[in-house]
Amino acid sequence: MAIIHSKAILGIVPRPQSAGALHFAKFTHVFDVAYTAAGNILEMGVLPPYAKIAGYKIIPEGAFGGVTFSAGILSGILGADGARVQGTELAAAATALTAAIDGVVPAAFDLANSELERGFGLTLSGDVAASAAKKIHLLLQYYQ
After folding, report:
1. What is the dihedral of CA 81, 86, 90, 92, to 10 degrees?
2. Is residue 129's pLDDT more than 90?
């Protein structure tokens, strides 16, 4: 199994500047390299330490055919490779990747606090051919 890291994981991570304020982060993964679904997880974004989710939206861009997905918090250290497990706090398994999904899973709003940054993972049910026109956006609202 491999963990594929988006640019948000490899680069600068947004950080809140004031306690209690609502913050917004947009994470985008462009499929400019082919994605092989077998055993892979796309680590797509980050939830800062002690942050709580206030809202989210997952937006596919481009044609993904019959590919479905699940999305949630990844176990382990942000950006690490190896054996990590992805939850389904944002989207249950077999959610169609055809239209925008507003945050509707109650578990997303009830996450326990963590002193560590946590990664958001997406698991896709099928391969995605390389195309700069294929993207997934995660729009996240959070507070601390």
Report:
1. 140
2. yes
